[in-house]
Amino acid sequence: MVKAVAALGEVPPYTAPVDGPSYHMTPDEFRRVGAELVDWVARYWEGVEDLPVLSQVEPGWVRDQLPPHPPQTGEAWPEILADLDRVVVPGLTHWQSPNFFAYFPANVSGPSVLGELVSAGLGVQGMSWATSPAATELETHVLDWMLDLLGLPDRFRSGGRGGGVIQDSASSATLCALLAARERAGGAQRLADLRAYASVEAHSSVEKAARIAGLRPDQFRLVGVDGSRAMDPGALAAAMDDDAAGGGVPFFVVATAGTTSTTAFDPVAALAEPCRRHGAWLHVDAAMAGSAAVCPEFRFVNTGADVADSWCLNPHKWLFTNFDCDCFWVADRGPLVAALSILPEYLRNQATESGSVVDYRDWQIPLGRRFRALKLWFVIRHYGAEGLAHHVRRHVALAGEFADWVDRHSRFELAAPTRLNLVCFRHVDGDPASRRVLDAANASGRIHLTHTRVDDRLVLRLSVGQTWTERRHVEAACDLFDALA
Question: Strands of 422-427's sheet, edge to edge?
Answer without folding.
Answer: 412-414, 422-427, 457-463, 450-454
